[in-house]
Design a protein that fits this description.
Helix content is 54%, strand content 10%. The chain is α/β, with parallel strands linked by helices and 512 residues long. A four-stranded mixed beta sheet has the order 6-7-8-9. β8 and β9 form a beta hairpin. Pfam families: SpoVR (PF04293), SpoVR_C (PF24755). InterPro entries: Spore_V_R, SpoVR-like_C, SpoVR_N, Ycgb-like. This is SpoVR.
């Protein structure tokens, strides 16, 4: 595209753009963002893509390099049909948590929109990815792209050597178990370097050449079954296997007796990708709130400095309002709390409390109220919190009243809901605690762990589901999940549901 002629001092004028205009706009936006907010970012690599390429990125979970799988094609067709029929629009950008930070911009965007999403993704998301403790400790931005390249090539070689059906038979259950394929309570190992992956490829090739399948046909050991009931032997066995184990894919990768070396490596690839996205599920409100706060602050600063005109600012504000729109609970468009809207309001409220506090704010936030250092407060929050802890610490009574939040009590034995707390003095703490708890991944995801298996006996894999608040697993999906686990384990699998508080057994399911 060719940029139209612009007035002196303006970054752009009109909707058209070219790469020179984009580059100049990025330099100015980056400088303003650092001056206004003291951001710290990875180097940025911006890519211009078409709508079809954006749909393709949707289907492959937004990654620039991805192996092939039928589910990605299915997602592509579904998203394409919605887009072509006007049922859903496309994202204006996609940003990759990598170093350099890769930002995809739609070629159909106007220049005003390109400036907006550059500030949002290339500055806001980029800063959050680089500085938030979850991303620093649980992902490796410097090696993820090279690892994805390794994964794509490795699975392609497996397809050539073993056939598409054989690879698909491993990928299907692995994808189905991705939710249970992450480390939640202990830090995962760092991704290996390219030199280490080369050594891994050589080792896997050697193992595949020397692999002998005959040992799997041996009957279970009698001595192993005889000691099945011994508590001391069971405790010793569980200790040797590091049980209980929360990461189901990791356990299957390391201990399944039926998987060949190349199949184990595919399980590892899937769980590494699942782990990569785990911090994003814990920080959606903060991540989107940070990016939205950054683009809103920077765009207003550009307008105040005379670098964009009124027409561009109106377009920017229109798109900003579309992103942060929060439908009412009785609106047909309501699907829950908009993380963009809640995140932005929380961060703007921190700025208000820091600069123009009320007496209520001084009582609730004595450490930041009236200190005027909102930049340092935000930078600290972006670095050291996830959604649950951020809301628990910074949701103010003012914001609770603005959102008209209240707390419902849902008791199974009662025929009606009960309004337990409203936005008043007695309800603020309970509402804030309940809202924060709803963003706790540990509370909203099923806690299923491997608790026992006798590898020398009947090889029966025993899983345990800790039932919280009486919420049971859905029968259909539970049965399908157990079948996927049995496909990768090869022997009987059982799942026992126990009460999280008392330990009492509630139910038991066996694999088909």
């Amino acid at each position: 595209m060719n940029a139209t002629s612009r007035k002196p001092g303006l970054l752009f004028s009109g909707p058209d753009w070219d790469f020179g205009t984009l580059s100049q706009a990025f330099d100015v936006i980056e400088r303003v963002a650092i001056e206004e907010l003291n951001l710290d970012i990875h180097p940025v690599q911006m890519e211009i893509i078409s709508s079809e390429q954006m749909l393709d990125a949707y289907s492959s979970i937004g990654m620039p390099l991805m192996y092939r799988h039928w589910s990605f094609g299915k997602h592509f067709l579904y998203q394409e049909q919605l887009y072509r029929k006007g049922g859903r629009g496309l994202a204006y950008e996609i940003v990759i948590n990598s170093n350099p930070c890769i930002v995809y911009l739609m070629e159909e965007n106007t220049m005003a929109l390109q400036a907006l999403v550059t500030a949002h993704a290339a500055l806001g998301h980029n800063h959050f990815f680089k500085n938030n403790y979850l991303f620093k400790e649980w992902t490796d931005a410097g090696t993820i792209l090279s690892y994805l390249d390794f994964a794509k090539n490795y699975i392609a070689r497996c397809e050539e050597r073993h056939g598409l059906a054989a690879v698909e038979a491993i990928l299907d259950p692995a994808h189905a178990l991705m939710e249970q394929g992450v480390f939640r309570y202990r830090r995962p190992p760092k991704l290996s370097s390219e030199k280490q992956r080369q050594g891994l490829r050589e080792r896997l090739e050697y193992e595949e050449r020397s692999y002998n399948d005959l040992w799997r046909t041996l009957p279970p050991s009698k001595s192993g079954s005889q000691v099945e009931g011994s508590e001391s032997k069971t405790a010793e066995r569980r200790k040797s296997l590091n049980l209980p184990e929360e990461n189901l894919l990791y356990f299957l990768e390391k201990n399944s007796l039926i998987l060949e070396p190349w199949q184990r490596e595919i399980l590892r690839i899937v769980r590494v990708i699942a782990q990569y996205f785990y911090p994003q599920r814990q920080t959606q409100v903060m991540n989107e709130g940070c990016a939205t706060f950054v683009h809103y602050t920077v765009m207003n600063a550009l307008f105040d400095r005379g670098l964009i005109n009124e027409g561009a600012m109106l377009e920017i504000l229109r798109n900003h309002c579309n992103v942060t729109f929060q439908p009412a609970f009785d609106d047909p468009r309501y699907t829950g709390i908009n993380p963009y809207a809640l995140g932005l309001d929380l961060m703007q409220d921190i700025r208000r409390i820091s600069t123009e506090p009320t007496e209520e704010d001084r009582d609730w936030f004595p450490d930041i109220a009236g200190k005027c250092d909102w930049r340092a407060t935000l930078l600290n929050a972006w670095a050291n919190h996830r959604d649950e802890s951020f809301i628990r610490q910074y949701l103010s009574p003012t914001l609770i009243r603005k959102w008209r939040l209240f707390l419902l009590s849902d008791t199974a034995s009662e025929p009606h809901y009960e309004v337990a707390s409203i936005h008043n003095e007695r309800g603020y703490e309970k509402i804030r605690s309940a809202l924060a708890h709803s963003y706790d991944i540990g509370a909203s995801r099923s806690d299923i762990q491997v608790v026992d298996v006798d590898l020398l006996g009947d090889r029966h894999l025993r899983l345990e589901h800790k039932v919280a608040d009486g919420v049971l697993l859905e029968d259909g999906s539970c049965g399908a999940t157990l079948r996927h686990i049995r496909r990768l384990w090869g022997y009987k699998v059982s799942l026992v549901g126990v009460d999280a508080d008392t330990g009492a057994k509630i139910y038991e399911r066996l694999s088909d």
